[in-house]
Design a protein that fits this description.
By secondary structure, the protein is an alpha/beta fold. The chain has twelve helices and 19 strands. It has an eight-stranded mixed beta sheet with strand order 5-4-13-14-15-12-17-16, with helices on both faces. The longest helix is centred in the last third of the chain and has 30 residues. The two termini are 31 Å apart. The relative contact order is 0.17. Bound molecules: flavin-adenine dinucleotide (FAD). Flavin-adenine dinucleotide binds next to helix 1, strand 2, strand 3, strand 8 and strand 12.
Length: 398
């Protein structure tokens, strides 16, 4: 009997963990390498749209989140000054009926834990932490991966390498795209916080996702873990000029947020005032590329298509990638053809979402009369028109 094909996955974020599961289900043996000494249970909330939650349901992950994930009843879009609703879109059962799966919100740590538990439950996946992938070479019969662990560098052999190593992907560097492929600062910063449900104003505990639109800023919030927490993301235009390319997050300054949102409706100000600690995340993406594979190595998730969070799709697209990768390995025994199949099925879709996410940010931050026209347009949409605008994104089967 031939031994199962062996995959190395670099990075145990949501993308890498899901890919390990889908590839294991396709019959591969998977070594999942994570540079951090532990799988970080950090982070804030995540919205998981039906295109992603449907995949998580198929792989038994959604059921591990019962009692933790919530299904908001609606998306409510509010005006920053009056607080009035610009529009509402039903979610809950309507989402499931229209797009085939629920829209859910979940703490990132809960999703990560569910994925790790599922990975540990199969003997096809070996999870190794404190292992940083430093490079790789394609060999005539496979791929040889250089891995740093402490002061040591090991060489591990596999049939295929998946680079799920995030925005600053090492493996992406091997595509040879040079300086044209640097991460691009969007000119916007996300201020992220988790508020204790006991400190949050009542309106923020409602089972809904709220999106407030203002000039050059927007605000998103929703409850998590049955209302024990409220996830808050305040996004502002920000001429931040960082020099550290590896900059990821910093403790934010609450006075700065307070000042920036001072003219907003009292509900918004009350919620922002209940935050104890902000994390500041300058937002980066990259231009789409048409090639994600180099021989027996391929990129996945943020490593392949980092995007701005304005459609809440970064993790969702990584989950779609993982499903497509598993399907390609189920369909084709040959590693290189399976990776080609994977790339073909994903590149255009991810590029579309990357570019749409940029445009969505521009739309959300319009100032002055342009914002009034945008709001009038949104008000004029009936529920069907509103929901149909998301069909291309949410009704997608990877
Ligand atoms: C403000 C904000 C809000 C967001 N909200 C949403 C949302 O609501 N819904 C949604 O779908 N998405 C959202 N996203 C996007 C989402 O967080 C990311 O797109 C997603 O987490 C990417 O997952 P990933 O596994 O590809 O990469 P990452 O999460 O970056 O994981 C990469 C992993 O690889 C490891 N690693 C890196 N280098 C190496 C190496 N050399 N060797 C080994 N391991 C390595 C890292 O330690 C890390 O664990 C949001 C993003 C932001 C900034």
């Amino acid at each position: 009997m031939t031994p199962p094909r062996h995959a190395i996955v670099a990075g145990a974020g949501i993308g890498g963990l899901t890919a390990a599961l889908t590839m294991a289900q396709a019959g591969l043996r998977v070594t999942l390498l994570e540079q951090s000494p532990t799988i970080e249970e950090a982070g804030a909330g995540l919205q998981l749209s039906p295109n992603a939650s449907g995949i998580l349901a198929r792989f038994g992950i959604l059921e591990r989140l019962v009692g933790l994930a919530l299904a908001p009843e609606r998306l409510r879009v509010r005006s920053n000054r009056s607080g009035a609703d610009i529009t509402r879109m039903p979610l809950g059962p309507v989402s499931e009926l229209r797009w085939g799966a629920p829209t859910v919100v979940v703490h990132r740590a809960d999703l990560q834990r569910a994925l790790v538990d599922a990975a540990l439950a199969t003997d096809r996946i070996e999870l190794r932490t404190g292992m940083s992938v430093a490079g790789f070479v394609n060999t005539p019969r496979g791929v040889s991966v250089a891995v740093k662990t402490g002061a040591e560098t090991l060489s591990l052999d596999a049939d295929v390498l998946i680079g799920a190593d995030g925005l600053h992907s090492r493996i992406r560097q091997s595509l040879g795209l040079g300086l044209t492929d640097n991460p691009h600062y969007s000119g916007r910063t996300a201020w992220r916080a988790l508020v204790d449900g006991r400190d949050a104003p009542d309106f923020a505990l409602r089972l809904e996702t709220s999106l407030w639109l203002g000039s050059r800023a927007h605000l998103v919030h929703y409850p998590l873990r049955q209302g024990a927490l409220v996830n808050v993301v305040a996004i502002t235009d920000d001429p931040w000029r960082g020099s550290d390319a590896n900059f990821w997050s910093q403790t934010g300054d609450s006075l700065q947020v307070k000042r920036r949102f001072s003219g907003w409706h009292r509900d918004a100000r009350e919620l922002l005032a209940s935050v104890r600690e902000w994390r500041r995340w300058p937002l980066f993406d990259r231009d789409p590329v048409s090639r994600w594979t180099i021989g027996r190595a391929a990129l996945l998730g943020d490593a392949a298509h980092p995007m701005l969070p304005f459609f809440a799709q970064g993790a969702a697209q990584a989950i779609e990638d993982a499903a497509a990768l598993g399907a390609a390995f189920s369909a084709d025994e040959d590693v290189v053809s399976a990776l080609t199949l994977y790339e073909k099925s994903r590149v255009d879709r991810a590029a579309r979402v990357q570019l749409a996410s940029r445009r969505q940010g521009t739309l959300y931050h319009l100032p002055g009369p342009a914002a009034l026209i945008r709001d009038l347009g949104m008000r004029s949409l009936n529920t069907e028109n509103m929901m149909s605008r998301f069909d291309w994104l949410y009704r997608y089967s990877a």
